[in-house]
Amino acid sequence: MKEYRNIFLLLFVAVLGLSVTLCTRYLTGAQNAPAEPINLTGSTVSSGAQAQETASDTDRDEAPQPVPGPVGETKEGTAYAAAPDAGEAKEAALSPLETAPEEADVGERAEGAARSDAVNPYLVRLEDLDAQIRLNRDSQGQASSTNTAARNLANSELKLWEGELNTIYNTVLENVGPGETGALAASQREWLRERDAEAVEAAKNSSGGSQESVEYTMSLVQSTRSRAYELADQYEYLLTALSGTDQGE
Fold it and tell me: Quick count: other Cβ atoms within 10 Å of Cβ 122?
């Protein structure tokens, strides 16, 4: 009986020692193991996964979100994006209907440039005659200071200007509309009366003197010259067009 009691005591001590060892190992492992965080849903996540998810959330928060534009409806009822802004519209290709006004503008500019390049040949002739007369006066010099030379010079200039004036007047008269010929002829007759009256007044400055006839003729020269330039400017569109027609033929 005593032997059974000793065996039972040894078994009890062995079981107790094993239990103490197991408890000690369990407690030591629990203390050394890292604690895992618990999310709000109750499931555990590793610290690395949590950091990666946090970084992703931060990137999404910082990234600029597209601003939706106004939405309309097509004929089928589906939504479509708003029209591009002004910057995008400049880069967008234009349709043929949109480019047509620009092509028309180019044509108008080209036509205007052609009109601006056209030259009135009658006006050029008048300017050339002015230059010729200045050269002639300079070449005469002292010779034109005598009464006879001055009178001859004035008569010569008058013929030149009357020739140019008659050319311009007759060209315009033959090519204006039927309703303008009467007014042009009446205007020319009125101008002739005024020209002669002004010449008479100019001659009075040297009445009875040797320069009377010269003053009279030089007044006619100035009036005729002015009238030639006046008609060339007034009917420039007609004279320039006639010149272009002649060149085309």
Answer: 25
* End-to-end C-alpha distance for the chain, whole angstroms: 156
d(CA 73, CA 57): 35
Tokens read off for 144: 């034109």
Going from N- to C-terminal start, the domains of the chain cover 116-248
Alpha-carbon gap, residue 57 to 71, rounded angstroms:
29
Tokens of 99: 């480019």
Which residues are CB-neighbours of 137 under 8 A, at least 6 positions away? Answer: 144, 153
Distances (CA, A) of 195 to 189, 219, 240: 10, 8, 27
- Give the Cα separation of 167 and 154 in Å (integer): 20
pLDDT at 60: 52
102-121 tens-digit pLDDT: 444 544 544 444 444 578 99
Would strands 72-73 and 79-80 be described as parallel, antiparallel, or unpaired?
A: antiparallel
Q: How far apart are CA 168 and CA 232, in angstroms?
A: 7
Taking only the tens place, the pLDDT of each residue in 57-113 is 545 555 445 444 444 444 444 333 344 454 444 444 444 434 444 444 544 544 444
